[in-house]
Amino acid sequence: MSERPVNPKPESLDDIIGRRAVVLADQIQKAAAWAKSEMDLQIEVAGALKEFAREAKIKLDGHHNITIATGHRDELGRPDSVYSNVIVEYKDPGTLSGNRDGANNKKLIEQIRSRFYAMRREENRPMNSMFGVGTDGKYFVFVRFRDEKWTDEEPLEVNRHSTERFLWALYNLGQRENRTNRNTCTEISVRTAQSRKKACVRYMKRSLEQTTRRRRFFSANGRFYLEKCAGMTSRIFRTS
């Protein structure tokens, strides 16, 4: 009696992002070695992200070199790439350093901050719903606005771990979906494991509150929160 063939286990989202992070990090590093400009780097990364979106079965809401008013003397700004709530700025390879206080790093951080203000003003996006990324192919600079203050961090070398964070930010905040739901749930995305645990618990508790207004809200949006928390919790308890 022949054995029944075993179907291969479907690849999980964690697996896809982990595998694509290795590939993308390698692509970014190689591009940084030959790129002559930030545009070369942008084209290489944008193409690789399309492949990631295909494998992850998501629709990245990507727009490149769009023009937005900065609000400063009627000047116009042109973010390199905007994936819904993820803003990506590219710099010439070798421009950035591992020192957050380096001149080029500080200039990049201020540029990303200005994008946040412009997007809030022009598109009414909450400041804490956005995620800023800057890279020269050798370093990542991540910028967020949390608890009424900026939380920019030390630059991270481009590797599988920093690239994985970039991909999770795109998965959580860069998809083409209902912005109201995504912005409300931003607090559940791209945080440390401990913070994500607390965020999930807090949001789940809200669904049990008995006010009429909140019951109506969670009745309409409960599935969204449950799906976000369910997927996140599996990652939290495996990595905590």
What order do the helices and strands come in, and which of them pair?
Layout: H1 13-34, H2 38-56, E1 62-64, E2 68-69, E3 76-77, E4 81-83, E5 86-90, H3 103-123, E6 131-135, E7 139-143, E8 145-146, E9 149-150, E10 156-157, H4 160-173, H5 179-184, H6 193-206, H7 212-239
Parallel strand pairs: 5-6
Antiparallel strand pairs: 1-4, 2-3, 4-5, 6-7, 7-10, 8-9
Helix pairs in contact: 1-2, 1-4, 6-7
Structure report:
The strands form three sheets. The chain has a six-stranded mixed β-sheet with strand order 1-4-5-6-7-10, with helices on both faces. A two-stranded antiparallel sheet has the order 2-3. A two-stranded antiparallel sheet has the order 8-9. Helix 1 packs across helix 4 and helix 6 (193-206) runs antiparallel to helix 7. The N and C termini lie far apart (45 Å). The chain is an alpha+beta fold. The protein has helices at 13-34, 38-56, 103-123, 160-173, 179-184, 193-206, 212-239; strands at residues 62-64, 68-69, 76-77, 81-83, 86-90, 131-135, 139-143, 145-146, 149-150, 156-157.
